[in-house]
Each structure stands twice: as C-alpha cells, then as structure tokens.
Amino acid sequence: MWKIKMLWFQGNSMQLAKHSFQLLLRNLSAPKTALPVLTLFTKDPCPLCDEAKEVLEPYKNREVDITLPENSAWYDRYKFDIPVFHLNGQFLMMHRVDISKLEKQLQKLEQQGAGG
C-alpha cells in the first residue's frame, strides 16, 4: 500500500481519487514489502504546503515541520523553498506537487521491489 500526504483541486480530482483507490487495491494484494516514504518539509504558514497536503492525502506518510528546533538543518536548507518532498530520503520535488513525477517514481520503486 502506498501513502503520501495531500489533495489539490487542480485538474480532475475525481480521476485522481479513482486512480489512488486503484493503486491502494493493487498494493493491498501485493506481497508485504517496505513502503516507500515520501517526506514533506513544511513550515507555518505555507499555503502551497496546505495545497500539497490535500493533493497527496491518499498517499500520506511523513511530514517534517522545519521550524522545530530539532529540524534546524532542514530549515536552513529549505526555508525559502517549501514545500519540498523527499522519497525514501532522496529529493523528489519542490514548490508544487507533480503527480506524474511522483507516480513514475513509485512505479519505479515497485518494479525494483518486484525484481524488475
């Protein structure tokens, strides 16, 4: 099962919801393996982060508030670029959610996990 964090109403949100549900069903029947981890770096206020959270809600996994003292290194790195997303600890995208890019990377991980 894949999860991330968000749901932005640009484009066809019904199509996104349908596709996400199909991914969920497909992954529920898949062998249990380590889930990919998408990390969102954020701070308050951040309207783009709020948008991103809505878009990715079906994929929800992890969010890092960069304003917390323990995340000061991330604050120094991303304070002007949020939202920022990492997938499995690697930079993926920033500023806006690119569902196409995200799904491509998730499929790549799925193929690697299946030995392909």
UniProtKB/TrEMBL annotation:
Entry keyword set: Electron transport, Transport
Annotated InterPro entries: Glutaredoxin-like, Glutaredoxin-like_YDR286C, Thioredoxin-like_sf
Superkingdom of origin: Eukaryota
Family designation: Belongs to the glutaredoxin family.
Name recorded for this polypeptide: Glutaredoxin-like protein
Biological source species: Physeter macrocephalus
Name of the gene encoding the protein in the UniProt record: C8H5orf63
